[in-house]
Amino acid sequence: MSSIVLLGSTGSIGVNTLLIAQRYAIRVEALVAGNNIDLLNQQIALHKPTLVAIANEADRGRVNHPHVLCGSAGILALLERSQSPTVVNALVGYAGLAPTLKATALGKRVALANKESLVVAGKFIDISRITPIDSEHFGLWYLLNQRPASKLYITASGGALREWEIETMRHASYAQALNHPNWSMGDKITIDSATMTNKLFELLEAKWLFDTDQIDAVIEKKSIIHALVEFADGSTTAHFAGVDMKLPIAFALRGEVSEPILPPTDLLGMGAVEFLPIEESRYPIWSIKEEILAKPHLGVVINAVNEEAIDAFRRGACSFFGMSEMVLDAYKHFERVDPHSIEEVVAIDQEVRAYVTQPR
């Protein structure tokens, strides 16, 4: 029986990963969760992991398990103690980088849903040990099938404010930016979807995963088509699938899947499919798309300021468009940084956060 370590077990990716693990009798050796201790305890009762780690030491007594590790150091210790060959990293944000680096250094395969790992430090990650859990990158991999391609495309939903007038977007609240029309996921990814930062990150991921900068994104509001590949012969193919992460998770854990995971796409029921450009007036972050693909090492800057900007928006300290203004300002300020080691990546991350949070 195969086994996995699951980081981020109580989020949407984690919950779906456990469903796939149940379906295929994959043992869950270890669970790592944040603050949702009630759900974690339910998962412990069902999956009986050997090891557990949580975010905060203060919650240790609430966890129904005899071996509980805590904090970022606890996650790394859990990885060292684990025997599983596969780690599913579904942690959110920069916190997911160190576990990705640790897991790959230990020779484990990482089924990666933590896109910030590649955005921040793709240059220093062994891509041969990475399998993406992301509908867009899974779609690209599924379509490519080792045939020569001239360009890759991923799709964007447009986010929660995609139908709003631009002037009205300036006054959008945090809650309104979380009201996504297509799905319910974590706060950060939903805000990133509204600003299009999520898609910029996915372009950087694709650059590292597929070793190309011939990659772009378009809006497809129904989220039925996740990826397209323009082949060298002039043909283009598209990957249709429902909005359900269990399909890429199943492939990441099993390698190959030949039975139904999702119902087939209802071609007649879905109606017309339309592709739209990503406009900089609505998504200002898109103005640096070409430059960041040419300088992917600056992903550490964008990620650091973006996390701080989201927190500022959540607290009411900046407007919706203020987040993009913060990102573009810091990106310009730090455009000459070029880390040559993970230690330098960590130092730059700290420097960027200090810069954007200092009183102005």
In brief, what are we looking at here?
Helices cover 42% and strands 15% of the residues.
How would you portray this structure in words?
- The mean pLDDT is 94.
- The chain is globular.
- Strand 6, helix 5 and strand 7 form a beta-alpha-beta unit.
- The termini are far apart.
- Helix 1 crosses helix 11, helix 13 packs antiparallel against helix 14 and helix 13 runs parallel beside helix 15.
- The chain is of the alpha/beta class and 360 residues long.
- It is 42% helix and 15% strand.
- The strands form two sheets. Strands 4-3-2-1-5-6-7 form a seven-stranded parallel β-sheet, with helices on both faces. Strands 9-8-10-11 form a four-stranded mixed β-sheet, with helices on one face.
- It has two domains: 130 residues, NAD(P)-binding Rossmann-like Domain (Rossmann fold, 3-Layer(aba) Sandwich), CATH 3.40.50.720; 127 residues, no CATH class.
